[in-house]
Backbone:
């Protein structure tokens, strides 16, 4: 192949400036480099790109490096030097596909801007046949680890949450959202603390409940707490309550500080609750009210949704064929008017 012969003849690209970045060079499942790199990108006369990514060294040479040559169809062909410090890319990597910041082939994976530093990068491996096979992985400067706990039996990692030093000891904690795949609960939360030297500790061996309203990190005095927002939802649920629960990391343990319940209930003109609709004939009930104050009565029809223990409410304005749907625990018509429309509450 002519373009490959050209690579072998030229060796390292002559470039006036090699930008500094981070990269990873993985060939045949072996990680040859992860860390500081040089990167250059040159546009050829035929409007295709030649990209050089190489391991930075203390001298003027590169350690391991890769040359990626774009074909006219947008597909890249990869070449690498194969041995540390060699100045020519004599080893062919075949075709590689550009995926985000990586070039991926059957035997190679070259990535730019990889996370590098004192904070691990967490990912969820979703290569299993079902989400139940998800695994949590941590990458700290190229060293990959699988993190698991016996207390996660029946649960699987679903989402990576924020990273922050929760207890002020200088070590980063990361929240991991766990799920059992059903809709009977809102899932669980686990906290993983990185203790340096590739040492990871699951702070709460028993996960704590997540909330249907999610969670967020809140500054509370001199510490950062995890505030969980929950409400009565899930299969067959007709209760009505809202709560906020604060958790803090103290002396290496995740402790529940306090749980609040909302004692307030909005004043409304009329309303429907999940409980009364579930007990109604056909588990359906309607409200009629002039919602846009045009003199015509509008209809709101709510049905009980067993799967989520909630209402599915369809709003039909008089004289219109279009209907809108809202999912609520309680649907209410308030006594407030904004820009000519009665304000509706969907809790």
Residues:
């Amino acid at each position: 192949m002519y373009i490959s012969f050209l690579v072998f003849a030229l060796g390292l690209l002559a470039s006036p400036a090699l930008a500094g970045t981070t990269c990873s060079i993985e060939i045949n499942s072996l990680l040859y480099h992860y860390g500081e790199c040089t990167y250059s990108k040159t546009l050829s006369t035929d409007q295709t790109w030649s990209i050089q990514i190489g391991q930075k060294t203390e001298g003027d040479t590169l350690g391991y490096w890769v040359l990626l040559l774009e074909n006219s169809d947008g597909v890249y062909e990869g070449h690498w030097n194969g041995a540390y410090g060699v100045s020519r890319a004599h080893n062919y990597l075949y075709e590689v596909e550009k995926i985000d910041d990586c070039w991926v082939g059957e035997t190679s994976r070259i990535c730019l801007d990889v996370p590098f530093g004192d904070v691990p990068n967490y990912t969820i491996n979703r290569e299993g046949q079902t989400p139940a096979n998800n695994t949590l992985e941590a990458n700290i400067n190229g060293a990959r680890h699988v993190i698991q706990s016996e207390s996660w039996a029946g649960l699987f990692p679903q989402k990576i949450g924020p990273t922050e030093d929760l207890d002020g000891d200088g070590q980063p904690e990361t929240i991991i959202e766990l799920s059992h795949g059903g809709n009977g609960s809102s899932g669980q939360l686990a906290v993983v603390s990185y203790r340096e030297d590739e040492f990871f500790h699951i702070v709460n061996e028993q996960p704590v409940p997540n909330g249907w309203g999610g969670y967020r990190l809140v500054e509370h005095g001199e510490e950062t707490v995890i505030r969980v927002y929950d409400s009565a939802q899930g299969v067959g649920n007709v209760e009505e309550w809202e709560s906020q629960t604060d958790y803090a990391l103290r002396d290496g343990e995740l402790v529940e500080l306090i749980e609040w319940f909302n004692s307030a209930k909005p004043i409304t003109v009329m309303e429907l609750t999940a409980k009364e609709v579930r007990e109604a004939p056909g588990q359906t009930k309607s409200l009629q009210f002039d919602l846009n104050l045009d003199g015509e009565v509008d209809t709101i029809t709510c049905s009980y949704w067993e799967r989520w223990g909630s209402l599915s409410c369809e709003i039909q304005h008089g004289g219109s064929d279009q209907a809108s749907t809202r999912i609520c625990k309680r649907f209410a018509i308030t006594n407030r008017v904004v820009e000519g429309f009665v304000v509706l509450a969907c809790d």
